[in-house]
Amino acid sequence: MGIIERLVPDELWELFQRVVPETPTRPQGGGRRRHGDWEVLAAIAFVATSGCTLQQLPSASFGPSGATAHRRFTEWSKARVWAKLHRLVLDELGVRGELDWCF
């Protein structure tokens, strides 16, 4: 299992796919191939959990650069992806009976 699979396991990826907006099409065509959402999500998770900055992101491990991860993070933030994903994770944990509201 590689770093991407450890940071974004299949169950999380399946939930994420339900809330991420469709990939925009380039009206003029051409350009570079857009990095996959899975790799970008893993890069964002790595930055969030490791304490490194986007500029320090080891793109050789993930594919996208720090600038790409930042752009996609901003795009997804504007689309409220994080709030929607948070809600889905809480709902899933609740359905499984793994959410303890007593503290």
UniProtKB/TrEMBL annotation:
Residues 9-86 form the Insertion element IS402-like domain. Signal peptide: none annotated. InterPro entries: IS402-like_dom, Transposase_6_like. It comes from the Bacteria. Pfam families: DUF4096. This is Transposase. The lineage of its organism: Bacteria, Bacillati, Actinomycetota, Actinomycetes, Kitasatosporales.
